[in-house]
Amino acid sequence: MGEVTIYHNPRCSKSRQTLALLTTRGITPRVVHYLDTPPDATTLKRLLTLLGMRPRQLLRVHEPPYAELRLDDAARTDDELIAAMMSHPVLIERPIVEANGRAAIGRPPENVLQII
């Protein structure tokens, strides 16, 4: 198996559970604290492709910046949504695990087992 990466928020219970699930299976992932080091546009676009999602699908709609930035506006382009996620990484759904040329969101944590 190649490198496994988790885009992790230690304050999020699902993120902690997903990380624990990986480590109990003997996997030591590369941990990216994405709130401290947000992914750039290239990384977000790659993850979206691997997830088979559009930027809007990756947004956390209950976070304050979502309303503040009026991201519910259907006229917002994918690039605008990606820029918002880079500027406000709290908007990115979590956790995202990347492995073997695939990605999955750990909601529930067991979702990531399909890519390991």
Radius of gyration: 14 Å
Helical proportion, percent range: 25-40%
SSE string? EHEHHHEE
By CATH's scheme, which homologous superfamily applies?
Glutaredoxin
Distance between the termini: 8 Å
Going by helix content, strand content and strand pairing, the class is alpha+beta
Tally of helical segments: 4
Q: What's the level 1 CATH class?
A: Alpha Beta
Morphology: globular
- Arithmetic mean of pLDDT: 97
Task: Provide the CATH topology.
Answer: Glutaredoxin
Low-confidence segments, given as residue ranges, are: none
State the total count of DSSP E strands.
4
Largest sheet: 4 strands, mixed
- CATH architecture annotation name: 3-Layer(aba) Sandwich
What count of domains describes the coordinates?
1
Strand order of the largest sheet: 2-1-3-4
Strand content: 5-15%
Note down, in words, how this protein is organized:
- By secondary structure, the chain is of the alpha+beta class.
- It is built from 4 helices and 4 strands.
- It has helices spanning 13-24, 41-51, 64-68, 78-87; strands at 4-8, 30-33, 96-99, 102-105.
- A 4-stranded mixed beta sheet has the order 2-1-3-4.
- The longest helix has 12 residues, at 13-24.
- It starts with a strand and ends in an 11-residue tail after the last strand.
